[in-house]
Design goal:
Blueprint (H helix, E strand, L loop, with lengths): L1 H4 L7 H5 L5 H4 L1 E5 L2 E3 L9 H5 L2 H11 L16 H7 L5 E6 L5 H13 L5 E6 L7 E6 L7 E6 L2
Parallel strand pairs: 3-4
Antiparallel strand pairs: 1-2, 4-5, 5-6
């Protein structure tokens, strides 16, 4: 996300949670039609503690009163704890895996982590699949059952 929207060195969530900036001062409005973007911020120092805080939960609750959808882009779910903490506060989780790149054991650990957190709205996207369209989305039907519904999509 930071590469696409060029937000790597911009103030954002970190500064909002540290009370250094107000949300309105750091949010990037309409980076695409209908899409506002809040960068991660300048310093990851203490990020895990801030994400685990009640302030982060309250901030998300405030955003839910303003936005129809809130998308939280995180680092990989395994091993850092930040993504799991964020997922525990999300309404749904989307796991993105790259064909012939993401290791099956990492993907299994990520999915198990989400199931263990009682996250029951989990979707997966498999990208970089040659000859199958731009990506494939997968919806697990039940925890660890190995049954999925899938669809190939070209854009």
């Amino acid at each position: 996300t930071s590469q696409i929207f060029q937000t790597k060195h911009l103030r954002g969530l970190e500064e909002v949670l540290s009370c250094e900036d107000k949300f309105g001062a750091v949010v990037r409005r309409e980076v695409m039609p209908g899409l506002d973007l809040l960068p991660a911020g300048l310093s990851p120092t203490g990020a895990t503690e801030k994400i685990a805080s009640i302030k982060f939960t309250e901030f998300l609750n405030d955003l839910r009163t303003v936005y129809d959808f809130i998308i939280l882009d995180t680092p990989p779910l395994v091993p850092p704890p930040d993504a799991a903490l964020i997922a525990s506060r999300a309404d749904i989780s989307i796991v993105v895996a790259s064909y012939n790149q993401t290791k099956m054991d990492s993907l299994t650990k990520a999915m198990d982590t989400l199931w263990d957190m009682n996250q029951r709205h989990i979707f997966a996207i498999l990208n970089k699949v040659d000859g199958m369209g731009d990506y494939i989305y997968v919806v697990p039907q039940s925890p660890r059952a190995g049954r999925v519904i899938g669809k190939s999509v070209s854009t």
